[in-house]
Design a protein that fits this description.
Distance between the termini: 35 Å
Strand content: 5-15%
Radius of gyration: 21 Å
Helix content: 40-55%
Number of helices: 10
Low-confidence stretches: none
Number of strands: 7
Largest sheet: 4 strands, antiparallel
């Protein structure tokens, strides 16, 4: 049964991570925060205990990301390294792959990026053209990826490619671990308008030779393995957005309590107070859906988790954008100054609507998969 209230353990985790985030604040150093969070066991809280993790799930990891975001210091790579890559390897990796990667991911000494997006595929994962073909005992991987986060700080990238089905000849998805310095594996930074501690890259794979043990799981279970990573990605993106929205609302509430233009603080006026209250309500509702999605995923109900994860990501993205917009509006001109740190969130908040899947594609999913309406794409 889905719990309606957080457990005492979750409350304690939330409080402890909030304290860590508050110590670092908006001017945090990513590497320092990553290292301290690792030392406290937060990076691997979702990974199996036998590999140095905390033995929890995405529910616990989403708390970590949300609270760091609420303190103004979100770690984007939490979505990628432990949530996507760590989860996929823990569920489908070989014993050797688990031993090689999970302890390092949990303790923060190893990081893994995730490469799925391609220039011409967009949201259509069925159009992925990165292909792997057999060459003796090895695979040769060729293709391109774009908007891949943190490749420069990652020890390897979990690449989504496609292999040919020996029986039908059709292409099916598969996952490969590609170490950073593998010959033929090149990266180019993308010049982004948005400022973030984690950079974005375009990847080129030119006949990258990989041993057979670079394949994660089974060639025939590609879609199952892929969505084992994509559902946590959506849940964690929701946590990222909720944390950002909470941070913005908190800044606006603090300002509205103190800022006096006429005889009373501006927060006493309903034109200021009500939109902030609505933003808070929307964020709380999005969190409930995120918690439901995390519970379903951690319970092993992948089908139900997929629906809930998409809904959580949609709700959180919408709530985040509205919260940031209202926070900036509350501060007026001050909302665009570096002193208050809200202006940069205007563009950052839009990411939660766009990535890793657009809100329109989520609406397509819900209308088709949940409501049973005809498919439009």
């Amino acid at each position: 049964m889905l719990p309606t209230l957080e457990s005492e353990e979750h409350k304690a985790l939330r409080s402890a991570v909030a304290a860590l985030g508050t110590r670092h604040g908006r001017t945090y150093d990513r590497a320092e925060l990553w290292s301290e969070a690792a030392g406290l066991g937060y990076l691997g809280v979702n990974l199996p205990e036998e590999y140095g993790g905390g033995g929890g799930g995405i529910a616990e990891l989403s708390i970590v990301l949300e609270e760091l975001g609420a303190a103004g210091c979100p770690l984007l790579m939490l979505i990628v390294s432990p949530a996507i890559c760590g989860t996929v390897i823990a569920r489908f990796g070989t014993d050797t792959q688990k031993q090689q990667w999970l302890p390092g991911i949990a303790e923060g000494t190893r990081t893994m990026a995730f490469g799925i997006t391609e220039p011409d595929a967009g949201s259509n994962s069925h159009r992925i053209t990165t292909t792997a073909r057999r060459d003796g005992a090895d695979y040769l991987l060729t293709g391109r990826k774009v908007f891949i986060s943190g490749v420069d700080i990652a020890d390897a990238t979990l690449i989504v490619g496609r292999t040919a089905d020996a029986r039908t000849g059709t292409l099916k998805p598969c996952l490969f671990i590609v170490p950073r310095d593998t010959p033929g594996f090149a990266r180019r930074p993308i010049d982004m308008e948005i400022q973030s501690a984690e950079k974005q890259f375009e990847l080129t794979l030119d006949n990258v030779r990989l041993p057979a043990d670079a394949l994660v799981g089974d060639e025939d279970a590609g879609l199952l393995q892929l969505f084992a990573g994509l559902n946590p990605e959506r849940i964690m993106t929701a946590a990222f957005a909720i944390g950002m929205g909470r941070h913005a609302v908190a800044k606006a509430v603090e300002y509205a309590r103190d800022r006096t233009v006429w005889k009373t603080p501006i927060g006493a006026h309903q034109a200021i107070a009500h939109p902030l209250a609505q933003a808070h309500i929307d964020l709380e509702l999005a969190r409930l859906m995120m918690q439901k999605a995390a519970f379903l995923y951690d319970s092993g109900d992948d089908a139900a988790a997929g629906e809930a994860a998409n809904m959580a990501k949609y709700a959180a993205g919408e709530a985040c954008v509205k919260a940031v917009d209202q926070a900036v509006h509350t501060l007026g001109g001050n909302g665009l100054t570096r002193e208050f740190g809200l202006g940069s969130l205007i563009t950052a908040a839009r990411v939660s609507r766009i990535a890793p899947v657009s809100r329109e594609m989520i609406l397509n999913y819900v209308s088709h998969q949940t409501l049973g309406l005809p498919k439009s794409y």
